[in-house]
Amino acid sequence: MKYLALTLLLGLPLVAAAEGLTESSLPEWRSLVFEEKAFWATARSQLELDACPESPAAWCLEASNSVANNRERISLSARPDGSLLERRRFSEGSDRRRKQWRYGLKGITRERLEPDASGEWRLTSRRQIDYPEGEPRVTDPLLLIALLRPGADSQSFLVNTDLNLYRVSAESAGEDLVEVDPKLAGFGTRHREVNLLKVTAQRLQPAADKPDFSLLGLSGELLVAFDRETGLPLQVRGKAPRLGFVALTLKSVELREPTP
């Protein structure tokens, strides 16, 4: 897999701002890797987003997140507006479990599977989650990295985590400088001017589970830093379990092949 330097992105136009789940093209990046190292633990997230092989009109995302000894893998498919069709999650830490969600016309079917004594995966729970009235389209927190638009004054999304639904809003939070990885530094400079977006999640009531919204494994006060010249997400700031406040910084990026 060939990773390209940030300098190759210079000159690409920013995508026009959009409100909520409106159809959009895939971002210029195909994969992103974020990482932050502490003295005794590392937080790492990798995203790969592309057209689905079996259905090119849909998006497919593969993601892996890890903090210390906790790991998860997520696979999902979505329409070009980011609204989910199906999602699967495997997690391991103190225990191992699988969860899967199917997004129908009237609601969500969520199933949990756990290994039995022989190691076979068994269905242990099936739940139905209704959509809010008049809102049959929900997205995933990870897809926000592709859907957020740094040029927009504000955006709003309906997001499904596990059993909960969240109203997630994003608004401009000013500008800043971000020091990037040497492999991504353009024209000899490692400090990039960025536009900040503040991401806020409000759990819809009645809540089905404890609060669980996170972005790349980070929660609390969330900020996403987009490069002003390219629109590339260079950093995600928030609170990580057992690490406290951290800034996940972009370490590598693979660009999408230009459309002929």
Structure characteristics:
260 residues; mainly beta; 14-stranded antiparallel β-sheet; 1 helix; disordered N terminus
Brief digest:
Helix content is 2%, strand content 55%. It has one helix at residues 144-147, and strands spanning 29-37, 42-52, 55-67, 70-78, 84-92, 96-103, 107-115, 121-130, 154-160, 165-179, 191-203, 219-227, 233-240, 244-255.
Report on this model:
The structure is a single chain. The chain is mostly beta strands and 260 residues long. The chain is 2% helix and 55% strand. The protein has 1 helix and 14 strands; from the N terminus they run E-E-E-E-E-E-E-E-H-E-E-E-E-E-E. The chain has a 14-stranded antiparallel β-sheet, with no helix packed on it. The radius of gyration is 18 Å and the shape is globular.
